[in-house]
């Protein structure tokens, strides 16, 4: 009987103590760019494309062109080169950039399979001229990695340029650097 009383007292004590423990649960906002994950998500691609295109269409170069030409500029997306340490699906990024351009209403997108097949800038420029395109949007993805608390934190830099192909000049240049990815363990 005494043994059963101690067992009951022990169980009640455990229940009481566990009810006193407070558990705080916080949810990471998947739209927040301080949210870390190892892989690029569709949300990351959308964020980068929308922020870069918004900056581009609001730039002085694009505004000046529209006021002088009295029409929306025609743009084609050129090569996006991934020079980062991680995998970024550049074809998905290109699709997100295309969507952002169309949805902005500030430029006309010339979509051509031919443009994606062009390996060098001169061939792309020639194809763009044949299609009546005013601008080429192209870019490079870089990353820088730092070690922090046994994790590798990679910050991705997406550097984009809008090139006026008639005048061979850069009308706009923008950088998105707010995508961070975390991985644990040693890099090889």
Explain what you see:
The protein has helices spanning 2-20, 42-57, 60-69, 90-104, 113-117, 121-130, and strands spanning 74-82, 108-109, 135-148, 151-164, 169-184. Strand 4 and strand 5 (169-184) form a beta hairpin. The chain is elongated, with a radius of gyration of 26 Å. It is of the alpha/beta class and 188 residues long. The chain has six helices and five strands, in the order H-H-H-E-H-E-H-H-E-E-E.
Would you summarize the structure shown here?
This protein is an alpha/beta fold and 188 residues long. Helix content is 40%, strand content 29%.
Task: Briefly note the structural class of the backbone.
Answer: alpha/beta
For the record, give the distance between the C-alpha atoms at the N and C termini, rounded to a whole number.
63 Å
Q: How many beta-strand runs? A: 5
Largest sheet: 5 strands, mixed
pLDDT averaged over residues: 80
Strand order of the largest sheet: 2-1-3-4-5
Binned, the helix content reads: 25-40%
Looking at the structure, what is the overall shape?
A: elongated
Strand content: 25-35%
Rg over alpha carbons: 26 Å
